[in-house]
Fold:
Amino acid sequence: MAAEGGTQTSSDYILHHLANLTYGKLPAGYVRDGQALSTDTWTFAHTAQEASDMGFMAIHVDSMMWSIGLAIVLGILFLIAAKKVTPGVPKGFVGFIEMVVEFIDNTVKDTFPYRSKFVAPLALTIFTWVFMMNAMDLVPVDWLPMLAAKLSGDPHLYFKVVPTTDPNITLGMAFTVFFLMIFFTIKNKGFMGFVKELTLHPFHHPLMIPFNFVLEAISWIAKPISLGLRLFGNLYAGEMIFILIAIMYGAGWALGLFAGVLQWGWAVFHILVIALQAFVFMVLTLVYMSMAHEVDEQH
Amino acid sequence: MNINLTLIGQSISFLFFVLFCMKFVWPAITNAMAERAKKIAEGLEAADHAKQDLELAKQGATKKLTDAKHEAQSIIDQANKRANKIVEDAQQQAQAEAELIRTAAQNDAQQELARAKDALQKQVSRLAVEGAEKILESSVDASAHKDMLDKLAAKL
Structure:
C-alpha cells in the first residue's frame, strides 16, 4: 500500500492513484485551505476537487512528463538505429528496430494503398509510442509514485505513471488524427469534396442535405472519440485492476501472496492488451487516413 | 478525469514526434532496408548466373576432356603404327644386311679356299720336285724343269 499506510482507507488509496499531478490556474476568490485567493494563481492542485475546479486551464504534469519522456527515449533509440543502419547485415538492436519498422510497413501497405510520406511514420509513431505508454502499466503501481513522493518530499503527491490512462492523452492523439483526417480529405478532394462528403453522402438528393449532414457529422465526430476512449478505457480498466490487486498486499501475508499471483497473471494478460490496443489505435488511424485519401466517389 | 490543456500539449508533442520520425527515422531505415533488399536480389541473381556458368564450364570441361582422350588415342594409334612400321623396316633391313654379310662371308671363304688351294698346289709341286730330286739323286735344275713342274702342279 501507499507510503503513509495506516490511516488511509482503500478508497483513499484508489482515488489517490487515479488523480493526476495537476498544475493549473485557480481563479481569484477561490477558497483554498479556508482562505480565499486574492488573485488568479497558477499552482499544483492539492486535492482532486482543486484539480477539477481548475477547469481547462490546467495541465497534467505527470502525464505530459511520462509521454514526452517516453517519446524522447523512443526518439533517441530510433535516431541511434537510423544512424547505425546500413544496407549490410543487420544485427542486434538495429535489427530489432528494423523488424518493428518492417512490421509497421507491412501493416501500412495492407491497410493504406496510397502513396504518402507521412502516413507510415505516423503509424510507426503511434504504435511504438502508445505501446511504450501502455507498457508503463506493467511497472507495479506503487513503485514510481512512491519514488516521486520521496524525491519531492511530499507524501501526498499525486503521480500517475501510465499516460494512456489519462483521457487527455488518448483524446489528444485521437483528435490530432481527426484533424489530420480533415486535412488530408481537403488536400486530396478539395474543400468542396470535403463539403460534399459531409452533405451528399448516404442519400444523394438536395432535400436530404441537412439529414446527411447530421448523420455524417456524428459519424465523423464519433471516430476520434471512439478512437481515444477505446484506448483510454482499456488501459484505465487495466490500471484499476492493478490498483485493486495492490490493495490486497496490505491485508496479511496470505492475501498478499494471492495478490502476487493475481498481479503476475493480470500482467501476463495485460501484455496482450498493451500490444493489441497500440495496434488497434494504429490500424484505425490507417483506416481513417485511407478514407481521407480515397478519391473516387461512391454514390 | 478532467479535460484540460494536457489534451493540447499531447497533440503538439504527438505532431512533433510524428514529424521527427518522418524526417529522421523512417526514410533512413526504410531506404537502408530497400537497398539491402536490392543487394540481396542482385546477389541471388549473380549466384544463379554463377551456377549457369559453372554448368556451362563443366560441360565445356567434359567436352575438352573427351576431345583430349580421343586425340590421345589417335596419337597412340599413330605411334603404334609407326613403331610397327619401324620394327618391320628394321627387320627387313637386318635381313638384307644379314644376307649381305652372309654373301660377303661366303665370298671370303671361297677366296680363302682358292688361296689355300693355290698355296697347297704350290707346296705340293715343290714337295713333288723335292721328291723327284731325291728319287733321281741328281739335282734337277728347277729352272730347267719349271714348265713341267708347273704343269704337274696345275694337274694337282
